Amino acid sequence: MARVDVVMPQMGESIVEGTVSKWLKQLGETVKRDEPLFEISTDKVDAEIPSPAAGVLAEIKVQQGQTVPIQTLVAVIETEVTSVSSAPAPRPAAPAPGPASEAPSPLSPPPARPRAPEAGQSPAPTPAPPSAPPRSEPASVSAADRLRERSTPLVRKIAAEHQVDVAAVPGTGVAGRVTKQDILSFIATAQPPRAPVPAAPEAPAVEPWPGDRVEPFTRIRKITAEHMVMSRRISAHVTSFFEVDFTTVATLRAKHRAAYSERGINLTFLGFIAKACADTLTQHPVINAAVSGESIIYRREINLGIAVALDWGLLVPVIKHANELSLQGIARAINDLGERARTKKLAPDEIQRGTFTITNPGVFGSFAGAPIINQPQVAILDVGAIEKRPKVVTLPDGGDALAIRTMGMISLSYDHRVVDGATADRFLADVKKTLQSFPEAAL
Q1: Which CATH architecture best describes the domain 2-79?
Q2: Options 3.40.30.120, 4.10.320.10, 3.40.50.880, 1.10.3720.10; CATH of 147-193
Q3: Is 256 a catalytic residue?
Q4: CA 395 to CA 128: how far, in whole Å?
Q5: Catalytic residue among 34, 416, 425, 430
Q6: pLDDT tens for residues 178-199?
Q7: 420 catalytic per annotation
Q8: Does pTM surpass 0.85?
Q9: How far apart are CA 356 and CA 301, in angstroms?
Q10: Partner of 337 for a Cys bridge, out of 10, 236, 317, 377, CB 3.0 to 4.6 A?
């Protein structure tokens, strides 16, 4: 009977810990190789982790709700067949592996880095070591220091915006790593305000009444809440609203929907809107920018974030280089990312590096909205309900008539620190123009 260790994987370059949010298999239960074993939550993504081997779940080392560093042993699987994945770090006295060793599965968590021999021990001599010895770190940099320096990009951005040295912030994360809550608390309490503005009020404690149900925030709900509050605090939010006649798009959609369906693509209004935004952003670079301190970063890439509402929270998967894709490519990406967000199959890099976000609450009937900017971006587009409404139209002879048109509202929330109202309105006007005269050749 072979034992296979299951470790906490590293779900992204800056991630140093993860929370076991749910065990999908019970102790003693049979599990197949690559079958979902447990769910984890990190600062970046929620994901299902597949089993590295087939066998029986013999031990659960980390319980639901616990947060542990990457490479922590979370479970043990017993199997009759030796697994080739997720082997523990080689011991100093172990002989070198033979040339017939198999490569680890690409779906398995990365193996732990080899550790230096303990004092008084020396590795067994080998005629040909399989790899070069690990590089030694400078004596002045400890493992704890390295973990501490690897705060998330969001933490480093907040620190830069407020001119705070991350090293001076007491951290409560793994090995003293500074979390978002740490940096926000430090700024609120330790740093003098940059301008005489009223302090943010503390949320009052609310007592539950008899019969109430109390549920703690899930990890993704907590992260979303912190992100939204932080965004409101940092950016000067303003929202502009435009009404769009989607009749041309509705006609094209009805005409080509069946052909797209045969290719496995659901041709939605959102696909047309995303394509119009991607093309229009090339003409309005400040809408596709980010703010760093007192500088504007004009992003070369146009990466569209598409907000997906889930039963357990909100995720924003990203379509990379959207301006280089056709309508068909964007529609396919929206379908694919949305489906994998709902089934927790997204990779961490698929929800990062967004430059502009689109949210579509109109599918639930919302007429229009003023969404909160997805930091560190400077703008977010809201799509309201698209439906048939009476509309005054101008006839060829110059007269007016009442007609039934497919109408909808789009709105843009933008950071008024860098985006002027005129700039935002020109962007919306160009998106509207594109949608109202969408060329059939683009399909």
Answers
A1: Beta Barrel (2.40)
A2: 4.10.320.10
A3: no
A4: 86
A5: 416
A6: 777 778 878 776 545 555 545 5
A7: yes
A8: no
A9: 10
A10: 317
